[in-house]
Amino acid sequence: MKIGELARRSGLTAHTIRYYERIGLLPYADRDRSSQRDYDASILNWIEFLGRLKTTGMPIREMLRYAELREQGIGTEAQRRELLEKHRDRVRAHVDELSACLLVLDTKIGGYAGTDKRMKDYDATLPQRRRRPAGARQTRAR
To answer: Among 55, 68, 54, 74, which residue's Cα sits nearest to residue 23?
Structure first.
């Protein structure tokens, strides 16, 4: 498939695909007779996986390391697993942090849920005018 179709099917721009290829995240594409890139459909799985790593916050340098190990093939499985396990630990910690933030937001939103009732109760009972404390001076117009 040509780069335009790959861009359409993957959701990446052609510019991003070329960039990923240039830095080593994507393998160099075969070329057709007119020297245009010709991608195999199997690259879509790899691009989807890279998208997941990016979405979960993996730095490009680690994605490059994983891609390098993947390219080396058999014998690098333990290193790839270790890299992914460390990333998974960071993702879990981030999810826990986001969950705590979500709880705070839910609590705050819940506090606003009763605002209408509180305002009606406040309006129903007009506040009493305060009396001036004994010995308080009256302000005079200047």
So the answer is: 68
Residue 53 near residue 59, CB atoms below 8 Å: no
pTM of structure: 0.71
From residue 103, alpha-carbon distances to 36, 56, 85, 91, 112 in Å are 52, 21, 27, 18, 14
Contact 14, 47 (CB under 8 A): no
Distance CA 41, CA 1 (A): 7
**Separation between Cα atoms, residue 44 and residue 108, nearest integer Å:** 42
Quick: pLDDT tens for 69-114. 999 999 999 999 999 999 999 999 999 999 999 999 988 888 887 7
The span from the CA of 39 to the CA of 43, in Å, is 7
Question: Of 99, 11, 119, 104, which is closest to residue 55 (Cα–Cα)?
Answer: 11
| Residue among 127, 23, 130, 13 at smallest CA distance from 67 | 23
